[in-house]
Amino acid sequence: MKNKALLLGLLSIGFFAISCSNDDNEGETIVPIQGKYNLSKTGTIVNGQEVLIDAIENESGCNRDYLDLRVSNAAVIGDYDGTDCALTETTGTYVRSHNDLTITIGNVSSVSDIMNLTNKELKIKDKTTGVITVYTR
């Protein structure tokens, strides 16, 4: 009798653990989005295939441009430019809603799908232009 009660208890715990999976995130990753990301690649989808190239926005001989998403919901875009690699930082805000990322600089907002978010990569696709941008940490 004790064995049956123990078996029933273990089965109950197993079923409870299986039934408590979080399906409410609709594919959303649980990796935090906050962090500093270096611009790596850009591209688009051609004939159903993703085509990415090294980001031409990165000046040769300079640090890579970046996107810094801060805990305070500030978004800082760093752009190295010219032969002296002068850094220009533009600050705005960002909002993440499920797998959408909205970045607002001044009065201009861009909304992107988060295609991939890991501890090493943020890949987004602009909902208006279809441009894919890959950032790495």
Shape: globular
CATH-assigned fold name: Lipocalin
Distance between the termini: 57 Å
Strand numbers in spatial order across the main sheet: 1-3-4-5-6-7-8-9
Mean pLDDT: 85
Helix content: 10-25%
Determine the number of helices (DSSP H or I, runs of at least 4 residues): 1
Count of discrete domains: 1
Domain Lipocalin-like: 33-124
Pfam family, one: Lipocalin_4
InterPro entries: Lipocalin-like (IPR024311)
Keywords: Signal
Key terms for this structure?
single chain, 137 residues, mainly beta, Lipocalin, eight-stranded antiparallel barrel, 13% helix, 50% strand, globular, disordered N terminus, Lipocalin-like, signal, Lipocalin family protein
Characterization of this structure:
The chain is mostly beta strands. The chain has one helix at 2-19, and strands at 35-46, 49-54, 66-69, 74-81, 86-97, 100-105, 108-117, 121-126, 132-136. Strand 4 and strand 5 form a beta hairpin. Residues 1-21 form the signal peptide. This is Lipocalin family protein. InterPro entries: Lipocalin-like (IPR024311). It comes from Flavobacterium ginsenosidimutans.
